[in-house]
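Module 6 notes. Inverse folding takes a fixed backbone as the condition and produces residue identities as the prediction. Think of it as a translation problem where the source language is geometry and the target language is the twenty amino acids. Below is one complete input and output pair. Work through it position by position during the lab.
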């Protein structure tokens, strides 16, 4: 077995840690303290594991949230509806989210952005539907994790963005933070590490907490600033040429 296969094998049985199943419910519930009817949106909700855990957590506090989701997989849609979630099926890389501006208290986007190219459009839409001072929780694989660094050091493709995989983007903590905070519409207030290869959960959680920049996944707590306007607006100005050198989707035209 080569070094790349050995690094990939470290994932076995650790998906819940990598996906932050132990992080997101408590984080989300802590953000709606004092709000008895919070509005929560999960983009790319899958089978609703995160939402089910959030609902369970909130049920202990007496909160009655309004839960919405974006999902396109039919089996997952059925599961979400069984949880009482309002589901919308759209192409998040090309279509606007079907909600009015500043509608949600919390927007969740977990393990989604790494599968997409049009992050300019997606993050703009996340920003648009989040209330001023509302929160966005983003979870992505960490390109700067220990095992990705070791793979690249040995001359191998980092597993977080494997050529034969489904990930088309890779994010380090400084890189994604810089992107999200461009234009001043969003502020990253906290980054939490999830999982730490090759250690079991007991030690993995401790190491991810102590060394988040080396953890397998990164979870960003992002606050929507009170700044008016659109996240995309900064990429429609002359300075965009210095920021972006390939076409990206803007909702109406392909520019640059």
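Target side of the pair, the amino acids:
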């Amino acid at each position: 077995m080569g070094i790349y296969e050995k690094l990939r094998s470290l994932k076995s049985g650790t998906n819940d840690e990598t996906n932050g199943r132990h992080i997101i419910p408590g984080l989300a519930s802590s953000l709606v303290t004092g709000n008895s009817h919070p509005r929560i949106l999960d983009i790319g909700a899958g089978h609703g594991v995160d939402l089910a855990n959030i609902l369970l957590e909130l049920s202990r506090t007496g909160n009655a949230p309004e839960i919405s989701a974006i999902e396109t997989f039919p089996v997952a849609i059925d599961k979400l509806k069984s949880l009482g979630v309002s589901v919308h099926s759209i192409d998040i890389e090309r279509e606007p989210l079907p909600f009015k501006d500043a509608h949600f208290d919390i927007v969740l986007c977990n393990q989604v952005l790494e599968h997409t190219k049009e992050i300019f459009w997606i993050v703009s839409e996340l920003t648009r539907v989040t209330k001023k001072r509302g929160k966005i929780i983003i979870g992505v694989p960490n390109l700067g994790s220990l095992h990705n660094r070791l793979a690249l050091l040995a001359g191998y493709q980092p597993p977080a963005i494997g050529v034969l995989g489904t990930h088309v983007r890779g994010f380090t903590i400084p890189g994604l933070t810089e992107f999200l905070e461009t234009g001043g519409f969003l502020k990253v207030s906290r980054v939490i590490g999830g999982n730490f290869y090759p250690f079991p959960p007991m030690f993995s959680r401790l190491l991810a907490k102590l060394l988040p920049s080396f953890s397998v996944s990164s979870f960003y707590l992002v606050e929507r600033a009170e700044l008016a306007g659109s996240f995309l607006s900064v990429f429609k100005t002359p300075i965009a040429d210095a920021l972006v050198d390939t076409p990206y989707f803007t909702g109406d035209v392909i520019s640059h």
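Reference fact for the lab report: Residues 49-59 form the longest helix (11 residues).
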